[in-house]
Amino acid sequence: MNYIKKLKNLFLYAGVEKEEYDRLLPNIHEGNKLLLKIFSWLAGVMFFLLFMVSLFYQGFASANSTAYFASGMIMLAILICVQWVIPKKPALVTILVYIFEIVLYAFGIRISMLHADRPAVSAVAFLLVSPLLFYDRPIRLSALITAVTAVFSVMVSYLKEPDIVAIDIWNMITFAVVAIASTLFIMSIKLRALVQAVQIDFLSKTDLLTGLKNRNHYESRIQGYPGKCSSNVICVYGDVNGLHELNNREGHQAGDKMLREVAGRIQSAFGADDTYRIGGDEFVAFRTDGQLDDVIREVDCMIQELGRQGYHVSFGVSSRDKSQEDIDMNALIKEAENKMYSAKEDYYSRPENIKRSR
Fold it and tell me: Which helix (H) or strand (E) holds 87?
């Protein structure tokens, strides 16, 4: 039973767990988008070059001119869709991948049927190569390979000489089995490599304690915010008060809990993609094209809500409008940081907090 379960998992999700495969879908779509752009461009150039050659040479080349032109136009249409449609509807990339592969299979079968007295070569070659070009579930690729083999076998039976039919069908079935086996093996390797790449990318960008983006990711992205806005960028700089004292008094678990609570509240307000933990007790968040008064009100609400939990964070909020010149992100962040320090000084100047150190 365990063997059957593993085999089922291999066909359905290339050896990874279903939940893991579902998490990989955005990466699979993005990877297929890039591969489809490359391969459709290369295939389109190849088909149009073959079409141009077919206009000047008779025989085999001219007999395929229509197939060359039609295949080239489909590749061009796929390339246009990848450029303009897929960014809006990423899931459609899978449909385009199968259209691409069906065109290759159809072209291979077409070439293989031109000579009734010769064994097929092109269809077998496309059968082996096409399933390995993209990321997908092996069960769907195996179904496509089986369908292509069936269509090829029927066409061979009607269009080729009797002594060639058996050779072509036997070769196609044999290489279909090889194609399915190699698809299972290579897709498993590709998916596991993608899992590792995603994990490495996650670890390089994420603060493991809070789940926020870390300082490395913060440093790599801050200069890109002016390009993401049309009117302004708002920076919120926060620093937790009393973390050191809480660690000494109740232990590091209590301090970690406080940091997670603060991080969760800031992330809830500003979104996971724009909230960062940049130091032990320092947080930075950004909002593009927002209202400064609204952000200040949100920050005041955060302070009150965290205060009810016994936590306090000093915040500084700063905004820069977009003009003809780019927003100076370093100046924006520095201004927010200075306002945070002013709020921190005010907090520790109060009698009830005077005994606390920073």
Answer: none
Domain encompassing residue 55: 2-205
Which one-letter amino acid corresponds to residue 47? F
Record the tokens describing residue 335, joined without a space. 């201004």
Rounded to two decimals, what is the model's pTM?
Answer: 0.78
Sheet of 232-241: strands edge to edge? 275-277, 282-288, 232-241, 312-321
Q: Do 170 and 221 belong to one domain?
A: no
Tell me the C-alpha distance between 304 and 299, whole Å. 9
CA distance 239 to 237: 7
Looking at residue 1, its pLDDT comes to 54
Task: Single out the residue of 87, 1, 71, 2 nearest to residue 37, CA to CA.
Answer: 87
CA dihedral 299, 302, 306, 308 (to 10 degrees): 110
The three-state secondary structure class of 133 is coil
**Domain CATH code at residue 281:** 3.30.70.270
pLDDT for the residue numbered 324: 55
**Burial class, 299, CB count within 10 angstroms (exposed 0-12 / middle 13-18 / buried 19+):** buried
Strand partners, 232: 321
**How buried is 293 (Cβ within 10 angstroms: 0-12 exposed, 13-18 middle, 19+ buried)?**
exposed
The CA distances from residue 306 to 209, 312, 313, 350, in Å, are: 18, 6, 8, 18
DSSP for 197-208 reads HHHHHHHHHB-T
Low-confidence ranges of the chain (pLDDT < 50): 357-358
**Hunting for tokens 């990877």 — which residue is that?**
31
Is 145 in contact with 179 (CB distance < 8 Å)?
yes
81 in Cβ contact with 92 (< 8 Å): yes
What secondary structure letter does DSSP report for 213? B
Do 295 and 197 belong to one domain? Answer: no
Q: Residue 236 in contact with residue 299, Cβ under 8 Å?
A: yes
Together in a domain, 171 and 240: no
- Encoded tokens for 107: 């072209």
CA distance 181 to 122: 20
pLDDT value, residue 357:
46
